Amino acid sequence: MSGPEQHFRTCHLCEAMCGVVIEHQDGQVLTIKGDKQDPLSRGHVCPKVMGLKDLHEDPDRLRRPVKRVGQDWVEISWEEAFATIEENVKRIRREHGAGALGVYVGNPTVHTPAIVLIPPFIHALGARQRFSATSVDQLPHMLANLEMFGHQLLFTVPDLDRTDFLLMIGANPAASNGSLMTAGDPMGRIKGIRERGGRVVLVDPRRTETAEKVDDHIFIKPGSDFFFLAALAQVMFADAHIRLRHLGPMVEGLAELRAAVEPFTPEAVEDITGIAAKTIRDLARDFAVAQRGICYGRIGTCVQEFGGLAGWLLHAINIISGNLDHEGGMMFSTPPFNAVELGPKGEFGKHRSRVRGLPSFGGEFPANTLAEEILTPGKGQIRLLATHAGNPVLSTPNGRQMDEALASLDFMFSIDIYINETTRHAHIILPPTSALERSHMDLGLAAVSVRNFAKWSPAMVEPPADSRHDWQILLELSNRLGESGRLGRYVRQGVQGAVERLGLDAGLDLMMRFGPYGSHAKLVQKRSSATQRVMSVLRPDREGLSLKKLAENPHGVDFGPLVQRFPAALCTDDSKIHLAPAVYLEDVKRAKEKLHSRRAHPMLLIGRRHVRSNNSWLHNSQRLVKGKGRCTALLHPDDAARLKVAEGQLVRVTSRVGAIEVPAEITDAIMPGVVSVPHGWGHGRAGVQLKVAGKVPGVSVNDITDELHVDALTGMPVLNGVPVTVSAVAGVVAE
Questions:
Q1: Calpha distance 530→564 (Å, rounded)
Q2: CB of 522 within 8 A of CB of 338?
């Protein structure tokens, strides 16, 4: 028996990317603590960190491929699993064409370096119907990136460490640990803003955990974020508080933006937002004169009726206030990989979904069209579905319809570690190794980090014999499913070729060497002289960044604060920032109609999250779900009195697509007329093999969100601001 060892790693359970120190012995995790030497998190961790141990040791986690036989699951060999998938994919593709193949990629995919192999896998599969968690999350941000900056992956990042004014809308970093804002310890950084004399304001329909730790919280009616943002911009134009700073020569469309927001005065939006005109006007003026300000919105601003327009104005307000690409404002990270150059530029509306004609984005259709594309007969009907780390039954609208759809497929296979609400419909499940059994480096999230840094960790323990890493599974499937039997146009080129020949780590090493800190950075085009000077400061020596250097620095390598990236990073054809793209100006007409012809709904539904959860995939950890039940319906006391609902009493929340029954939690932390139910629950479905989650199943809020209620611009489902009715379940009080 060996003595205890220390393992330094990045926690991959959410976007915070906290550094951890894992003490382990003979393959057993003894303790997990924050790594005080990590340049990003500086020792901070949240309660979820013990999920690393629980996921690794979970007896419900699959270790070998399984095949569904009737209502039972049997273990099979990897060869049988791969051969069965290959046979069915090629059969269905031959009989029905590539239009009959679909793929869904879930949120956890971004937390693994194997994400680089998702594109070649999808290409080899030949699936023309592609879906992912993007369209129930950050699509409006990516659309704004594409339309205004020329590339879907040019994400803006809050420079929390140097700002004077943080305005947050529809975000709850105290629970999420930051989203599209990889900050290690976001609330510690937000506390730092206040300690140095800055101001933090949160706008949200609920007084969240974050609201308790800011200077001002402002209630806003669900679904009205665009109207609030438009009023802020209108005041800034009316008061001549427009400041472009170094972006001046790059910005076009200023007059068009001014005309677009002109009707949305604070007085005009007062009723629809529920925010007093004076409050909006004062806030706009305070933000406009701040020397270093951030207007940051997250998922709450995205998944609503005007989410596309809200994503646009978040960028626009930062631009016209002089806070885009400016120290202390919304900046752009410089990750160790050239994500913009490696990833596709993106497209919007190039294709339309078969049944409803909703627009594609980045080659994907909105996830709320997946079920209907499976259930609707005709040419292009999806008959085969592959999923990667996704659970659309719980995470996309009308989960009961999704259940029905998945059950009807000719064939389905999943790459996943659990038999959950979605994968129970699969015919074959391929489980990858646990995160602690493979090396780790965050690729996607480094592009939204509030500080430039890089970190790589080797595997903590050897994987079991006859197991497969996620990247090995993806490579094997790509080689088997491609028309030529190999990787097609991806074969032996760049990262994919290096991974196939040498392994994933070799591919990462290659990417780093050609990245901005690598020895071959000078070969990368589109570097201005100013950027080259920055790189000479950031690059620690002539050797440049490599896997070897990161292995020698297990806590990570710090490259310092965010730096100016424009104009060099702009990807538009004319090298301009497009402040008023036509797609938004056209959609503003719809918002004007809403402004003048409003219909009041008695109750509006919103979601919420908790620091001990991450969507649906941490509920099988006893230490993370224990304690007071968290799957409740928050109601304001006025609504509870009107509905004659007592604390803990079951209430029925009903929408067009169905109803759920959930215990009431009465609190003045939510606006009157709003009910909040958390997402990610609903583990009581038959066939789910999650013992801990099954004891606290809760209900799925997405059993009552409506796949037909969408943002007309993006096609995204409306998950915040869903019209519902709430009624007491007579005589029933939850235990």
A1: 9
A2: no
Instruction: State residue 585 phi and psi, 5-degree precision.
Output: -60, -35
pTM recorded for the entire structure: 0.95
Three-state DSSP at 565 gives coil
Q: What percent of the chain lies above the pLDDT cut of 70?
A: 94
**CA dihedral of residues 218, 220, 226, 229 (deg, nearest 10):** -20
**Is 80 exceeded by the pLDDT of residue 600?**
no
| Residues contacting 58, CB < 8 A, separation 6+ | 620, 621
> Dmax of the chain from CA atoms?
74
CA–CA distance, 262 with 622 (Å, rounded to integer): 53
Instruction: Name 649's Cβ contacts closer than 8 Å, sequence gap at least 6.
Output: 663, 664, 728, 729, 732, 733, 734
Q: Return the pLDDT at 493.
A: 52
Which strands form 101-105's sheet, in the order they lie side by side? 72-75, 66-69, 428-430, 411-415, 384-388, 101-105, 129-132
Mean pLDDT estimate for the chain: 93
Q: How far, in Å, CA of 50 to CA of 54, rounded? A: 6
Residue 466: how many other CB atoms lie within 10 Å: 9
Distance, CA of 690 to CA of 423 (rounded, Å): 12
Handedness of CA 334, 338, 343, 347 (dihedral sign): positive
Contact 177, 14 (CB under 8 A): yes
Say which amino acid occupies 165.
Answer: F
Separation CA 579–CA 250 (nearest Å): 10
Higher pLDDT, 523 or 437: 437
Residue 678's closest CA among 626, 619, 606, 628?
A: 606
Domains of the chain are: 139-336+577-588 (3.40.228.10), 596-733 (2.40.40.20)
Measured N-to-C along each axis, helices 307-320 and 582-596 cross at an angle, to the nearest 10 degrees, of: 110
SS3 726: strand
- pLDDT tens digits, 372-417: 999 999 999 999 999 999 999 999 999 999 999 999 999 999 999 9
Contact 469, 507 (CB under 8 A): no
Of all residues in the chain, what percent are helix, strand and coil, respectively (each to 5)? 40, 20, 45
The residues near 544 (Cβ < 8 Å, ≥ 6 apart) are 512, 513, 517, 518, 519, 520, 521
310-334: string of b/e by CB count within 10 Å (b at 16+)?
A: bbbbbbbbbbbbbbbbbbbbbbbbb
Tell me how far apart the alpha carbons of residues 48 and 285 are, in angstroms, rounded to a whole number. Answer: 39
Which run of H or E residues covers position 283? helix 277-289
Which of 118-133 are b and which e, b meaning 16 or more Cβ less than 10 Å from the residue's Cβ? bbbbbbbbbbbbbbbb
Residue 367 parent element (H or E): none
